[in-house]
Amino acid sequence: MLKVGLVGFGFMGRMNFDHYVKLNEDGYPIALTAVCDPRIEELKGQKASGNMTTAREVYDLSAYHLYSDLEDMLANEQLDAVSLAVPTYLHAEMACSLLERGYHVFCEKPMARHSAEAVKMAETAARTGKKLMVGHCLRFWPAYEYLKDKIAGGEFGQVTAGYFYRGSGAPKGWLVNDELSGGCMLDMHVHDTDMIQYLFGKPDKVSSLGRNVVPGSGYDIVSSHYHYKDGKVINAQADWTLEGDFGFYMGYRVNFERGNVVFDGSTVKVNPNSQPGFTAYLSPHTGYYRELVYFLDAILQNKPVSVCAPESTALSIEIIEAEMESARNEGAWVTLF
């Protein structure tokens, strides 16, 4: 039975909590035993807001050991792994410290505020032999897994173009402080940048346009092009200024030589050029659930974290930094070495 501690009880902390509870209910050998947050006494009676709905509005944490200090939790609990759902600027220092002390670490995306920190995290995991996985949930999201399978299988030939998009209203608190979060580009847009890198490999160069709307939050609207030597046209856009009743949306359209695949946020429609289109069957489990299953299996079976390898997720931060540099220079192409 793996014992896990959760650090951070905001929106993503609760999303982690929900899925650890669900895994336990499904008979998985996992026990979430402790929850840590500096504001735990305040937060445990409050609802957290985010892009998606958590399983509960108010959480009964009476069955868990609660801590306001991480060191207290580590001193008093016998843990195998720790889930980090803390602000981005804390990821690198906390993850490296935990890895050094012998804990496996699941860290929410983005991997770190800066690519040099992300590289250090990957190097620390390799040196200590402990599992480190970053929660890039799209790599496990059924609609995106389906797309990866179609690209790898070659059923519709080569990809000729792709468009990826996500949008919502602006978040609150530290997330709209560019120095702490990296703004929309690093917090939201990184999902699609990471997926593009995962699907197609490292681009040769990038070109981005960005706009700031919320004071101090960095780029809130972004449109990026990714150049590949085979000439496919790849673009990703993100926008967290969509207020009112917009809610949240993510989707893609990918063109192949002999068809196209479109995800509208809920269903995947496959449109072959020479036969009727159809709706793809997708797993009912979200990427949040499936990424934790993968992480825990890697620990239990002592397998490498290959689908979401730290070196790969660190590369996604490097690409985002190149996109930021391009945006600062009005869309000039920035080469990735």
TrEMBL record:
The keyword Oxidoreductase applies. It comes from the Bacteria. Residues 144-260 form the GFO/IDH/MocA-like oxidoreductase domain. InterPro entries: Gfo/Idh/MocA-like_OxRdtase_N, Gfo/Idh/MocA_oxidrdct_glycsds, GFO_IDH_MocA-like_dom, NAD(P)-bd_dom_sf. Residues 2-136 form the Gfo/Idh/MocA-like oxidoreductase N-terminal domain. Keywords: Oxidoreductase. Pfam families: GFO_IDH_MocA, GFO_IDH_MocA_C3. The keyword tRNA processing does not apply. Signal peptide: none annotated. This is Dehydrogenase.
